Structures
1.
Amino acid sequence: MATLTLIQAVNDALKTAMRTDPNVLVFGEDVGPKGGVFLATDGLTKEFGEKRCFDTPLSEDGIVGAAIGMATNGLKPIAEIQFQDFIFPAFDQIVSEAAKLRYRSGGQYTCPLVIRTPYGGGIRGGLYHSQSGEAYFCHTPGLKVVIPSTPYDAKGLLLASIDDPDPVLFLEPKALYRSVKGEVPEGRYTVDLSTLRTAREGTGVTVFCYGAMVPVCLRAAEQAAAKGIECHVVDLRTLLPLDEEGVIDAAKRTGRVVVVHEAPRFCGFGGEISAILAENCIEWMEAPIVRVTGFDTPFPNTLEHHYMPDDRRVLDAVEHVWNY
Amino acid sequence: MFSLIKPDGAVKGKDPKLAPDELLHIYRTMLRVRAFDEVCMKLQRSGRIGFSIPNRGVEATQVGAAAALRKTDWIFPSYRDFGMALYHGVTPTEMMHTMYGNGADCAKGRQMPVHFTFTDPIKFFSISSPIGTHIVQAVGAAYAMQYRKEKHAVLASFGDGGTSSLGFHSGLNFAGVWKSPVVFLCQNNQWAISCPSSSQTASASYAIKAQAYGMPGMLVDGNDVLAVRQVTLEALERARKGLGPTLIEAYTFRMGGHSTSDDPTKYVPKKLLAEWEKKDPVVRFERYLAKKKLWKQPLRDKIYNECLDEVGDAVKVAESTPPPALETIFSDVYATVPTHIRRQGQAAFDLAARKGDAAAGGGAFPL
Amino acid sequence: MAKIDFKLPDIGEGIAEGEIVKWLVKAGDTVKEHQAVVEVMTDKATVEVPSPAAGVIGELRATEGQTVPVGSVIFTLETTGAAPVMMSHGGGHAAPAKAAPAAAPAHAPAAAAAPAAAGGKVLEFKLPDIGEGIAEGEIVKWLVKAGESVKEHQAVVEVMTDKATVEVPSPANGVVAELRAQAGQTVPVGSVIFTLQLAGAAPVMIAHHAPAAAAAPAKAAAPVAAPAPVAVAAASTAHVSGLDSKIPAVPSARRLARELGIELGAVAGSGRHGVIRRADIEAYAAAGAPKSAAPAPSSAAQAAPARPAAAPVSVAAAGGQTRIPFRGVRKKISEAMVRSKYTAPHFTVVEELDVTDLITLREKAKAMGAEVGIKVTFMPFIMKAVASGLAKYPQLNAQLDEAAQEIVRFGNVNLGIAMDTDQGLIVPIVKNVESKSVLQLAAELADLADRTRAGKVKPDELKGSTFSISNAGNIGGTLATPIINFPDAAILGVHRIVKRPGVVETPQGDKIEVRQYMNLSCSVDHRIADGADGARFLVHLKKLLETPGLLAL
């Protein structure tokens, strides 16, 4: 078993998939000889050649559009969008086309593709290298949205996404690319989509999170434990389709819920969790369901550390619901 | 490919006969770009700023194009065009504030470095990271000029990679139909991060794409500052006469990496780099100036050192300026601050106050 | 001149570590600003790292070939000039060591903080208790700004309490430094609302003693505003919907209160702003009666069972068992019954009634009731009889006020009618039975039963009984010894009607006929009344119900 960073685990997953299935292709901007701006695709062109791992012109809509076409015709494309902030020219292709193809064709045409993209803040990337846009895509039926937070999950979930017959948007928390290391088994394995992961067991307060917020919440949980509050930290992993039962059970376990995400608050994913809990288990709630989120502003550069939820803000929310 | 200055500095064709002041201003600007660049790279590598984008090798395209513009024209720049701002009077200090993202930054520290935005002395439109989005916006701004029957024009600048974007297609298409007073400047430095031009398009050139959109396309030697200026000037004159847009391809080479996060030695052949080193745009212009008896080596040293000092001073000012105030996260989202944002701002101030953070000021959200 | 520890910076987005390839200087070397000091390899690039300032290299803290994390010190430098400003690891620039330059940035922190003037203490002005025992006030309007000079007694701010809106004056001459509360914000008495740079001596202020209630306020924020991320929390606690729409309670508390038939209004909330928590309901149920405090004086809470504490029963786990958690309503009933049975010494008297004529009457009454849409059972007749009996024997329509050591006899008869529902045993109450007709009682009873089974009974319909009736007769059993609905004095059990051959006295002598019989049992709290009372009460009921025409008297 190797200890890999999250980005290495992604690379490992891509290699594994490409070794086992000749229909798997990887393409995007700078993914070929350069190996990607974060080195996610390092070594792929060398091992698999230019027909299987290659650079495209600077055109996100082209990348996704072409991927859709490939997917409908027997290939399994893994498209990289260099930063999630740049995905919007491709929004039409993703939302209007990839997400709706199976439905509108009565299942005659399907779209088994994966779009991988680094998302989220924490690297001083300012407005356009830090966005967390998962909410736009979770609002799109037909699409799957997956976000790993550990190297083990990154490889397992990516391999599962590649196997998945539906279009998957695989959002990689760039802040964790190199700052998180973990044991990753060699060879093929998958982590099921639509299953949450309990990152820390507890009976006091349930904290729902994903991506780069998972380590933040775990740190806050340690601090909470020192104050006698045991947090149950849940890494959602797949936002769409969500493990709703798992979410409801985890919430009922403590009756006190905090949801944490970097993305802005209004119409953020935290709202969906709150609504699900309010509809299904409000009578188990001992306190309001609280969200700790980025602000409803664009993502600032210099003041990034004020913007992103940190362990202090999470701890404040945990204490608030605990003492309610 | 159009050029004016031969490698040895002699003029090919018609000398534009610019006044010595103007020539030296062009020259100084190119050196200022180089100095600013050099210092910023070092600032980034020593951890004093977070990011920078090298401009080495493309000084002539930026400054040449800028030299053709009037101060009443608008520039829709790429992030590798700050030489245009310098040419028209933006100071290194103002730019350094943006590089530091401090409280004096006109964008209030919100953007990554090099994403400049200036309204004076010239309209240097706010740079965003997505590629090509500004190209079609430039056409809109030009439309307003047409609407008001002004004689102004717009320069939209982008790289070879930018021609693959949706904005390029929409922009040139609209401009062709509307006969917009826009000059589209494609700075073909032959690399889009690691993607070589040959993988970017199958067209014989970028200039040739102009035909598809119903406008003239001109290919110019991007390392020849006077040639770039000439061609841009002609295109601007067409635009001001109501004859519509032009696409200019300035053929040059990116001598540095894409950014401080990029290592070009991994994909740029050494041989190619060495070839283009010989075509250094600053050196070529020096040879031209020398032939005009306006230049000797000591002048370069003098001016370059002045530029370095200028940038050094800018660094001192910028680094001693405090960071932007906490409320700048919450202002300018809208014209006025709505309730839900005000609430979040107050919460941020409360938290900062409880943490004992000086950013909290008095603890009350001041907007 | 400064000594700086140079930390490996994040050279490219998100780099976590770098390998020292080659030192380009040694300890003791003089370096210029921007001079390359070391070659570092990251997985994106190999770069030269320059010195941030001119100076002399102190120590090299990493060796060639070593991989170091971003942020660790790799060399030290003794600068010849001022220390350079480095980006703080993980975000933005720290505020520079020097004071802000004369060219004040256009977007400096807003006027909230005035610069400290030369000399003079800073007084933190706390919101005083403006009217006897005021706990908090709402800032209506600031009459001054930060930086403004004020005189002693000059009005500084308008504050609204629930007694009055007042102007709060400055206690001394000085310059307002910071305003620490916003217009519209409610702040507790004792929290700092502004600071004042004093021009002269500090005034003597009354020491403030915080009231015993809520959480201690954070320095600059009212409870409304803290903790930071939950900015809307306070506003939302007021907007709860439900039966008790004006009583804030968390959802889990409402559920439990409903299950236990506890009225929220009777429960003190220990949450913020008096919100009732689940723990409060649990505490209330454990400590108090199953029904809440009646209008009539009732016994104060305690009276623990007088049994000696024994070791709890433990059942060894084995196959074939089904284990059901002993909690919720079941547990509450258990606690209530234990309390009743072990506080009130019960005795039970029983009487057998010939209800043949009552049945005949009821059939006729049922028909009459049907004409006006009222369902008539036996219960209204029994209730009427009970009311009559309690008028004659008021010692059974009573409670023992243990605190006052008084037996309280009630002037009216409120009958608790025990009902078995999905939620368990619920005892809604029909009030003032003595003044209602049988038909009225029938209608009220039917309505109450429907609503009780639907879980829609109002809380005030669950409290205030003076006597209770338990009718298990329709389920089964000819006799029982009911447990009193504590703290009533007594309870009447109504049992099944059975047909039996009976002896009827006629002028022609005794005859055998088929008759219908029903037992009534009455359990009484022997602290309050005696066996004879219970017996006589039942005799009275028998007289009325065997000849039901007498109920009209």
2.
Amino acid sequence: MVIMTGNGHIIAVENLNLWYGGTIALRDVTMSIADKRVTALIGPSGCGKSTLLRCFNRMNDLVESCRIDGAVNFHGKNIYAPGVDPVAVRKEIGMVFQRPNPFPKSIYENIAYGPKVHGMKDTKKLDAIVEKSLKSAALWDEVRDRLHESAMGLSGGQQQRLCIARTLAVGPEVILMDEPCSALDPIATAKIECLIDELKRDYTVVIVTHNMQQASRVSDFTGLMYLGELVEYGDTRQIFEHPREQVTENYITGRFG
Amino acid sequence: MSDKFHDEIGLMKSDVIEMAHLARDMLSDSMKALVTDDETLAAEVKARKSELNDRHATMEEHIFQMIAIYQPVAKDMRSLACALQVVNDSMRIGRYGKDIANTVREIFEQPVIGNFISIPHMSELVISMIDDAILSYEQEDIGLIEGMSKRDDVVDSLRASIFRECLTYMMEDPGTISRCIYYVMIVRYLERCADHACKIAEKVYYMQTGERIEIK
């Protein structure tokens, strides 16, 4: 559909088709994701935006009936090529989900878990990673005195920032967010939105959201998905001021969806 | 956004058009009062100023509230931006109508100079520009405003030529100075009204296409 010009792209999707059993969920999606920018995917329920997001770190591999055709190139290499380890892909391209899902462990252990799985044992280094990740996720000041208390005692918004910190702890380049604020109240949502704005200094963020105001506030680029197709993709300001496609116009002005 | 919002946009639009017609009529009636030396009509025009003010305040508040409540985007946003422009320019056009009505009293029952030179002709051109700008907003038809820039050029030329003619009259007979000064002011008001019609046309174009153009 649209390939953004320029060199600063970290992910390039080429002619991606995806089926769940006999049902096609993505149709010939071609797009590139700008490095260290926020890209939002919007569209009505069932349009394929979450499916597309999950293709970026092979989360759809976990769905048995799923079949994929096409390429998702990360730094020019197809993550669906034979021999690519999905776990290694997910270390580089992390994900934050709709509902905060902390492990039933301490705050510290939640963050240290990923680096430990990837083989880190040095406690000083782990301490440093925990602190850095929590700072990057704007949570450090709120939890520094209770790192060893259960993460389940945090508020919903804090839990979601903890999940972001947990993603950051393994040093990804890209963070995928699947409706990260839909279970949060407006204040917690505002904090996550501020955080997304800060994260793009060091990370590339791709966010799926049902909230169009959120897409317009946080993203640099917006893609509109409809019936499995990427209908329009471009500069967020252009999309919300003057969309090119009638489908986009109708969706963002609330005429359907 | 809900259909309630689009219903409200529709209602707001008819209010905006009503206000634009009020302003347009203030201008055309003030010109009529001038040409027919009708002080009663001029007084009527002046009396409409408070209604114009009230409508402007109400419409502006309504548009701001709609922006705050519905946070419109795309065509919805551009429609509200255009409505705000029409409301503001109508306010100016109506007030120039009132200003022209004021001059009627100043030159009441005084001999007309040069059959008002080309002022009535110029006012017809300006009012037709305003009519087409309002109609293009109403019908969302940018075809109506295609020739706007050329029409504005004609208005500008008329202004310059009337100014020169007034200068000649004043030099020939200083007794015409006070009347000619009023003529020059009226011509200036009319020229400004044509500019406001162009500003409305620019925003209608933006509402319809999303592109900003400059008409001058």
